[in-house]
Amino acid sequence: MEEKDMKVVIWAGGLGTRISEESHLRPKPMIEIGGMPILWHIMKIYSHYGFNDFIICLGYKQYVVKEFFANYFLYNSDVTFDLKNNSMQVLSDHVDPWKVTLIDTGLHTMTGGRLKRVKDYIGNHPFLLTYGDGVSDVNINDVVKFHQFHGKLATLTTVNIAQMKGVLEVNSNNDVESFREKFDEDASLINGGFMVLQPEVFDYIEGDNTMFEQEPLRQLAAEGQLKSYYHKGFWQCMDTQREKQKLEALWASGNAPWKVW
Fold first, then answer.
1. Residue 153: which residues within 8 A CB-CB, separation 6 or more?
2. Could you give the residue ranges of the DSSP H alpha helices within 37-97?
């Protein structure tokens, strides 16, 4: 299997309750940045590195995602509708070279369960996996090379999330012993998605109620099968309206770091 034939699996089925201002209308991955769904931005990142075969794990309001891709020509091209002859002519073709497989993985299925439900569409091959609400300027090719080099079952991209607030040090009597502004060292490493996985990871997932981030990743880590690719550059998820506005502002500035295409 050619490296660029690796499929990209994207989780896009969750309820997105923390950004409920918009997610009651559509799934969180379909919330727009610069007039296009954040899901589209994520796919453009992968496509820039030559990965164009996508499997989207759907659940909540899945029809919104299906309608978007069904009407992709309409959204991304100039068209002429000849109503008399019931025909549509695409005048300019801006469509990406994507193959997109949209799979209903259930309304309340957990992340591990969603992944297991698309196993047959992935086959017995290594694949890429990420969340439908996070963008980054991570070099996907470098992550894949790192994964192939170490030979373990799973690689995830880790990012440093800095403390947003001042740091308190409190003793057992609840006395604040010191207060200082944040340092970079106060930050935590988190799973930023942009994973590369061997097909053996399916053996670590029991079923629909399995959270991929819990038992499967814990077990892989305990067995020495989980590696971290540390990304020092830009990464941002869109959990809240504030984070959406931050991404919107970056896009509007013309300097969105994740726009590598």
1. 197, 198, 200, 201, 220, 225, 226
2. 38-48, 62-70, 72-76
Question: What are the contacts of 213-222 at 24+ separation with CB within 8 A?
Answer: 213/111, 214/112, 215/112, 216/112, 217/154, 217/156, 217/191, 220/153, 220/154
Selection from 7-21, 76-90, 199-213 with the highest mean pLDDT? 199-213
Taken in order 118, 24, 95, 197, is the CA torsion positive or negative? negative
Mean pLDDT of 131-145: 97
Render pLDDT for 9-49 as a digit per residue (tens, 0 to 9). Answer: 999 998 776 676 676 788 999 999 999 999 999 999 999 99
Non-local CB neighbours of 209 within 8 Å, separated by 6+ positions: 110, 113
